[in-house]
Amino acid sequence: MAETHVKPAKGKLGIMVVGNGAVATTFMTGVLMARKGLAKPVGAMTQYDKIRIGKGNDKKYLHYKDIVPLADLNDIVFGTWDVYPQNSYQAAVYAEVLKREDIDPVKDELEKIVPLKAAFDKNYAKRLDGDNIKRGERREERGEREEIPTRWEMVELLREDIKQFKAKNSCDRIVVLWAASTEIYVPVDMNVHDTLEHLEKAMKADDREHVAPSMCYAYAALTEGCPFIMGAPNTTVDIPAMWELAEKTKMPIAGKDFKTGQTLVKSGFAPIIGTRCLGLSGWFSTNILGNRDGLVLDEPANFHTKEVSKLSTLETILKQEEQPDLYTDYFHKVRINYYPPRNDNKESWDNIDIFGWMGYPMQVKINFLCRDSILAAPVCLDLCLLMDLAARDGRYGIQRFLSFFLKSPMHDYTQGEEAVNNLYQQHTMLKNAIREIGGYTADEEID
Fold first, then answer.
1. Which regions in the chain score pLDDT beneath 50?
2. 223-266 pLDDT, tens digit each
3. Can you give the pTM of this predicted structure?
């Protein structure tokens, strides 16, 4: 390795996952199987991708671990929170993503991963009905026991969970990953979300409209010195108050929404249209999905959160102001349909209406029969390992170099910054950051 100031990945890395459903259990099972040599972590950039360092006679292509000190899979310890009390073995079997023969070899390890009680507010996910949830303190003035803790109580209870998990498992470092359901949409309100002081005031006032439970997880994680990753399209850390907290605690944050199926295709195919200078009339995307995520997204308020995330991709790749002849007023629609028979095997259809020479119309059809959790699991691994790396390198705040893995990458919209959604530009950002952290020159231009 070149000279680098990043701290080594010594000791155990705790990964505490919010949610113990299909994505989380597929991720955990895959890592446990891989470190026994019984499965391959296919799809994980940190395990397979190679990056060029140097030029000319000095040029070499190396795996990430040969450039930067990544945590080893053998050093990972898993924990989780969930509204359902089933351990990770039971949850993995129930999810029906993996075959029993691919779960049973690590049954003993999965059974020991028992979810902590979730900080949960049913108003944010009406379709979920679990009872493994944190309870509030007794309200003496009303003489009753609150079902939901106040938002500040949620923060304090979650902080205690993190402390106890870290001590019990002798972890040197913890990363907190949200792999739970999409919450209802929380619009950014600059009276609450603008500063850390205002957000804390809202939490202490138990403002349940503007403070989502996920914000309590993020606040608790950052305050306990843990990087936080938002794997759903929730507003959570995409607010100035959380950016301020990340700066105060010197912790990295990343989000939002794992880029797995349809949006991965969109962020890769839209640049083909743009690079070839073809016009776009419309792009219609629809999905059928039958897992717990599909159930939650069947609720219109929850779907709206996802819709905002999925719609943001095209507009930053095919820009009207740069090519008015080609990208003026194209129609873009996204739909998700809950279809139980398909379970985790999501199917997405894209109909793309383009036009070429002299305005003549053409069409592209993409039918992606993907497996949602199989695509999400390696993204979870990559994000956790790279966020841990970022923290050891002293990086904090929004980690833009991780945009490659995220559907709606975070950016400072208060300063007019635009997210980078072009997959190839995102890959260049990722490679440059790995080079830089490893002590090499970040030498690729992002055109």
1. 140
2. 999 999 999 999 999 999 999 999 999 999 999 999 998 999 99
3. 0.94
pLDDT one-digit tens code per residue, 117-162: 999 999 999 888 899 999 986 554 555 555 789 999 999 999 999 9
170 vs 415: CA distance, rounded Å: 41
- b/e string for 338-372 if b means 16 or more Cβ within 10 A? beeebbbbbbbbbebbbeeeeeeeeeeeeeeebbb
- Residue 172 Cα to chain centre, angstroms: 23
Alpha-helix runs per DSSP H in 73-179: 88-95, 107-111, 151-168
pLDDT at 245: 98
Q: Who contacts 150 (Cβ-Cβ below 8 Å, separation ≥6)?
A: 136, 203, 204, 206
Q: What residues contact residue 16 under an 8 Å CB cut-off, 6+ apart?
A: 78, 79, 80, 81, 161, 162, 165, 174, 175, 176, 177, 221, 226
User: In which order are the strands placed within the sheet that holds 76-82?
Assistant: 116-117, 76-82, 12-18, 171-178, 228-230, 252-255, 397-398
Picking from 263, 271, 280, the residue whose alpha carbon sits closest to that of residue 320 is 280
> How far is Cα 53 from Cα 298, in angstroms, rounded to an integer?
46
